[in-house]
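look at this one:
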Amino acid sequence: MGMGKMGGGDIVYMIYRALSYGLSPLINFHLRWRKLRGLEHPIRWPERLGRPSLPRPHGPLLWFHAVSLGEGMAAIPVVKCCVQRRPDITVLMTTTTASAFEVIKNRLPSGVIYQFAPLDTPSAMDAFLGYWKPNAIMLLESELWPNLIMGASRNGVELVLLNARMSAKSFRNWSAPVVLQLTSLMMSKFSLIVPLCNKQAINFQLLQASPLIINFSGDLKYAMQEFDDSKGGTTSMEDLRAQLAGRRVWMASSIHKGEEKVMLGVHNVLKQMYPDIVTIIVPRHPQLGQDIVRDSLREGMSVALRSRRDKLLPGTNIYVVDTLGELRDFYRLTPIAVIGGSFLHGLAGHNISEAAAAGCAVLTGHHLGHFSHMALEMQRLNPLSVLKVAGKVELVEILGELFSNAKLLEAHRLAAKLTNHALSSGIIENVWNLLDFHIFRKAIPEIQTVEQQTQI
């Protein structure tokens, strides 16, 4: 393309590409530094540089990309649906984080190829696209990477943004005067954008995405249970269920640094009222589990740690889950779930629907970020489905009410489960219909057999 024919977006992209190329040695050095610190996979980290570890099968290939565990788990029902309905297509799944890899690798259907996502440098991304040659790319939520999007467009690859969302900060960044030209150019390369909600649809239109490519399906995170065939009844979980029998139990999940002090404070108050209480704490990052154990022991509490396979003895009141991939199983064990990442300023909430689908009474703080739309949707259908609490004092009060009133607890549990079921109904079918109409029929049409042609 000659300079005279280039638009503002093209020029901004050329600057981005040149910068990402020039910074590649530093980015690669940083990747190796992360590997030494245990933050990248010790063996498969070269995949982040676009170096494949598996052969590409013949035939059409669909690439799903999610940055981390939450987005990856939300993609799995769509992946399973695509595998079932289009077995002629190979599915490639990528994520960025090692924690996502450890959990998702065991939940994907057989035949799905799993790799770490390449860095958005020209060499890594061009190598990745050149090797895998996807027919279409499904990006989850907010994965807008210029070299990926522009490289795919150059190669005639269809682009989809599923569960599309953007934080307020990201929206400000992508809509900045000069950057908006690049954003507009990237938006023009998508064939389909499926936003999280109406507000997000408006945001993408303000970023100059065409209204013609914006379609709704519902939040994929509601539908994470729909295709869930994971085994929840393991021996260790059944043993733990037996150890919890007859005791009052509540769980604080996805707890961030600083929130554990709130939860331990709540536990101390409740223990005075209910000496047999068990508080299950699931930190967002497993490393935080050791800190929680150390602080609890310092205060004279008896603590069991999941990774050590500690038994929950009669005198033990705190159970810390410092493992990955077991959150759903623990939701099935507890009648009450307090969702973390929502009790301190600067945090942005976590998925509420997993606990609701398991039939927990669901409580959360007020700092919910983009999950605020989920809480609002659920409360509109049934105000009992999600309870927002301001902090320690209110949390103690509501937990006390739930523990002392069995009918009230059951009402909240049933409201959460039924509301989640209502909101999750039909979402995967909606997504499939959109993908089939906008992508598959155009980019990856089914090859008719001789028998099918004869029938026609």
About this structure: The mean pLDDT is 93. Residues 39 and 98 are 7 Å apart (CA to CA). The longest helix spans residues 406-424.
